[in-house]
């Protein structure tokens, strides 16, 4: 085995040998070893496909892609394809068509991950910061029986993302707000914090109700105390009008 790995896998002959060994390992259900041999043969896509379809390990596939593919453009393209397909259940073109769309009627693909944190991280990696936050809000519309994640965990993560500068900046940009300086951005960002959409309001109250149901009234009060004092019940599409006013 040591002699085998000492060969030059840049040559066509040894690449074919490595690929042949990969298929043999696949037949023996040694999928991680098969993926490694696919990499030796220079077939990154086959290696990633094996990891995703046979090992069901998205994180490992991401690590392999980032370590193996040195061309940043090719790496980003493959990463986008993989995340869109495996997590969001859509093609990259479908993702781009709905980029930044955070209205209440936005629907998840039937093939999308049921884990809101994985979806949120995926949107973040794809630089769709508004939807990274909004996909957490959508969980407030689910029935409790179908939820796989604690609502208070979702609320805490959303509370952090809601005020994140990248999320605020994208929301302002999508709303058509012109922010020239850092001082203006901070001022408009503070104003943005006083706005809450119906979906956001639902998340606040459902989280508070969840704490009350578990006998934690102080936690429920803590959630409600985070609501802005002056609430403007708006949809995201109306943000431009309010900011202009």
TrEMBL record:
Gene Ontology BP term (one): vacuolar acidification
Domain RAVE complex protein Rav1 C-terminal: 1-222
Signal peptide from the UniProt entry: none
A cellular component annotation (GO) from this entry: RAVE complex
Pfam families reported for this sequence: Rav1p_C
InterPro entries referenced in this protein's UniProt entry, alphabetically: DmX-like/RAVE_component (IPR052208), Rav1p_C (IPR022033)
Domain of life, per lineage: Eukaryota
Protein name listed in UniProt: RAVE complex protein Rav1 C-terminal domain-containing protein
């Amino acid at each position: 085995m040591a002699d085998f790995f000492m060969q030059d896998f840049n040559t066509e002959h040894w690449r074919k040998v490595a690929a042949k060994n990969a298929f043999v390992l696949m037949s023996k259900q040694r999928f991680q070893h098969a993926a490694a041999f696919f990499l030796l043969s220079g077939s990154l896509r086959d290696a990633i496909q094996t990891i995703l379809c046979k090992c069901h390990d998205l994180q490992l596939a991401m690590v392999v892609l980032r370590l193996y593919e040195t061309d940043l453009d090719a790496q980003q393209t493959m990463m986008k394809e993989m995340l869109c397909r495996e997590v969001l259940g859509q093609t990259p073109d479908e993702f781009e068509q709905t980029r930044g769309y955070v209205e209440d009627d936005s629907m998840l693909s039937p093939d999308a991950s049921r884990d809101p944190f994985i979806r949120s991280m995926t949107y973040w990696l794809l630089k769709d910061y508004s939807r990274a936050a909004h996909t957490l809000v959508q969980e407030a519309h689910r029935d409790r029986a179908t939820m796989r994640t604690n609502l208070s965990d979702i609320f805490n993560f959303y509370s952090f993302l809601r005020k994140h500068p990248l999320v605020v900046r994208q929301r302002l940009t999508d709303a058509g707000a012109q922010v020239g300086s850092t001082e203006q951005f901070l001022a408009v960002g503070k104003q943005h914090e006083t706005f809450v959409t119906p979906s956001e309001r639902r998340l606040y109250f459902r989280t508070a109700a969840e704490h009350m149901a578990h006998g934690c009234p102080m936690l429920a009060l803590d959630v409600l105390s985070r609501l802005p004092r002056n609430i403007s019940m708006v949809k995201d599409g109306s943000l431009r009008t309010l900011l202009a006013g």
